[in-house]
Amino acid sequence: MITNLQLIRIFAALAVVIYHTDFRILGNVHTDFQAVCLFFVLSGFLITHVTRKSSEYFLRKRLIRIVPLYWLTTIGLLIFSAFGFMNPLRTIPLILNNFNGFIQQSNVSFTSLLSFDKIIHLFTSLLFIPYLDQSNSYHPIVGVGWTLNLEIFFYMIFALSLLLSKKYAPIITIFLIGAIMFFVKFSQCKSVVCYMYSLNYIMLFVLGILVYYVINLIPKKIFQYRLALLYFSLFILATFIYLNLFSFHNNTIIVMLLIYVYPPLIVVLSISLHEAKYRFNHAPTLILGDASYAIYLTHTLFIEIFRSISTQYPLFTPSKSIFAVILILILSSISSIFIYKKIEAPLIIFLKSIYIDNKPINSSL
């Protein structure tokens, strides 16, 4: 395992949490530090990396890794919302003082879930199909799931490319993505499906694939200059953070650098540091990398709960209180580690035993 990449996962997952709290850094800076870009570049690299060694059961492996927890989170979020637990200050007293009223409220909420639009929204969410609901939102029930729609899109294209040629699958994938985006952009298609699959974010998967080839082209002797590589990496990280905090919204060139240059460069440098024997191996921290997917899917639950609590207790206002942000980060991390260890990892192992014929797979990829 390239443990340095786990640090990128941790950073990106926690950056997404901070972004969704709407807390403004340095007074008015609202940035996710290109977390989604980092995730997509990582995905492009890792998919290429693992399939160069073995492409057997590629799509099954990816679906087992992505789908179960996403489905559980989607259904869990619906049930949690229907019972009113997004607003505990109202729901908990209602349960204690008027349980019949709580049941009646829950029945009304569940009945509303049976509307045609809600049912369609549920199935399109579960099947990773872009859908525009009645509120003109293209987000699935789990809001961050729009990125998984693109992730599954990438997996499908890569799986098709593997069928055409295992050796040249990454190159075929790049060609197919480019062709699809070109067709969608110039076909004047206005559907939400066309909109989603023409987002420039998709090109970050391509950059991730290119990272794989760049790494393999770097002369091995460069990794001997360990200190120079370390200092350069720290410089890139410092400028990346600085540009996010001070210049993100002001300059188109800087925005382009932050989206399309820094994420692949950070991944390249992380792998290069690994090759140069600078490897992060602190197990208690690395577990957050394994739990990063759970953090990504479930953190908004804590944010919404805090927002409802903040109506009576302003200290818990996520967008204005650093205390609330820190508490959300801690709760999201602890709960996600529990989810990973007790639900996600065992479920992955169980499904692999059924669908991958007991072949060992690294579930952290």
Structure overview:
Residues 360-365 have low confidence and may be disordered. 71% of the residues lie in helices and 0% in strands. It has one domain (3-355). α2 (35-53) crosses α13 (262-275). The chain starts with a helix and ends in a 10-residue tail after the last helix. It has helices at 3-21, 35-53, 58-82, 88-97, 99-112, 116-126, 145-164, 169-186, 192-196, 203-217, 226-246, 252-260, 262-275, 283-290, 292-309, 322-355. The protein has 16 helices and no strands. By secondary structure, it is mostly helical. The radius of gyration is 22 Å and the shape is globular.
Which shape, going by the Cα principal axes? Answer: globular
Q: Report the β-strand fraction as a percent range.
A: under 5%
Helix content: over 70%
Number of structural units classed as domains: 1
Query: Structural class of the secondary elements?
Result: mainly alpha
What are the low-pLDDT stretches, counting only 5+ consecutive residues below 50? 360-365
According to DSSP, the number of beta strands is 0
Order of helices and strands: HHHHHHHHHHHHHHHH
Question: Please, how many helices?
Answer: 16
Biggest sheet statistics: none
The first-to-last residue Cα distance is 9 Å
Q: How much is the average pLDDT?
A: 90
Radius of gyration (CA) equals 22 Å
